[in-house]
Amino acid sequence: MAVYDFEIGEDEVGMVNLEELTVPVFAPRSGYKQYQVEVDLGDLTVRGFGRPSATWRWGFLTLAQRDQLREFCAGKSARVYIQTKKRDDTQEYAVFYAVMVWPEEEEVTAGRVLDIEIRLRDMVEVT
Predict the structure, then answer these.
(1) Where are the domains positioned within the chain?
(2) What is the per-residue pLDDT across 94-119, written as a single tens digit (0 to 9) for each?
(3) pTM for the whole thing?
(4) Following DSSP, what letter does each residue of 18-36 receive, concatenated?
C-alpha cells in the first residue's frame, strides 16, 4: 500500500502511484510554483503569469528506478498526467496534465543516479 500519493501515467485513467510501479520509486521531495514567472509592477505589487510548474527531486535513484521513470519520458520531454502535492493552504494533491522534462545531465555512481530532478511544467489541473 502506498504511503504517498505521487502518481504518473500516459493518460488520466492509467495513472499509477510511484510506489506501485513495476519497479517501485519512492516518493520525491516535491516543489510547486503557482506561476511560471513573477513580474514586479510599477505600484510595487507582483503579478504571476503562466501555468503552474513543479519539481520532483530524489537524492538518488537506482538505475532500475530511473529506467522505470524514463518509460514515461523517452526523449527530452513528454506529456504526462501526474498527481503531485500543491503548495497552498491545504497541502493537498491534485492531478495535472503536464510536460515532463528530463534532466540535462545525470551523475551515475555505483549503480545509482545521484541528485536527480525532474521538472514538470505547463501544468493544467484536471478537474
Answers:
(1) 7-125
(2) 999 999 999 999 999 999 999 999 99
(3) 0.89
(4) GGGSSS--PPPEEEEESSS
